[in-house]
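Reviewers asked in the last cycle whether our approach scales beyond single polypeptides. To address this, we selected a multi-component target totalling 226 residues and predicted its structure end to end. The input consisted of the following lines:
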Amino acid sequence: DARVTQTPRHKVTEMGQEVTMRCQPILGHNTVFWYRQTMMQGLELLAYFRNRAPLDDSGMPKDRFSAEMPDATLATLKIQPSEPRDSAVYFCASGLTQGVTYEQYFGPGTRLTVT
Amino acid sequence: EDQVTQSPEALRLQEGESSSLNCSYTVSGLRGLFWYRQDPGKGPEFLFTLYSAGEEKEKERLKATLTKKESFLHITAPKPEDSATYLCAVQALDRDDKIIFGKGTRLHILP
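The resulting structure, written as structure tokens, was:
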């Protein structure tokens, strides 16, 4: 049963600390997305990659957020320095682009609390 | 600007009481409309993709329909296990892989 995995599932940190979230996409999927979900804003796209190349990171605060895909089995999202307003659930999703639209498969999320 | 609006925000139904959730969208050209289900503490789970007006998809007690301006998720004789947040999302023709999500409808089915 292929699924997207994310670590850690929960993270509590103090303001100013670095946070790193990791995602393992489904094997064979070539597109990876990072989303942030809050009650107020809902699901917001932060960044996404296709074949490990970053295609769009316009949803991310560039001064503190960075997303990378060092290899096909790992995507990372870093926040440095973290702020209380970054508290949210961060989801990774993966999909297979084959020239037409397709569904995205979501991981269980990382719940981040910044105090 | 592409937009997705879902209504109602929350809906409480008795078990067996059928109803519909609405997703209104504004997009320059629709490539696809998605429905997802999200349970508390979990990531969204894919339900359906609709591509063109008039299309319908069914899964158990759920049926999704699509017009040029909106989509409906019809729930027939719901059970308590259908309680979840239902998310609608659209992908535009000129937005590559990006999809825009609505804020969802929280559905609660009372036994």
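Chain B touches chain A at residues 31-32, 34, 36, 41-46, 49, 51, 87, 91, 96-104 (CB under 8 Å). We regard this as preliminary and will revisit it once experimental data from Aim 1 are available.
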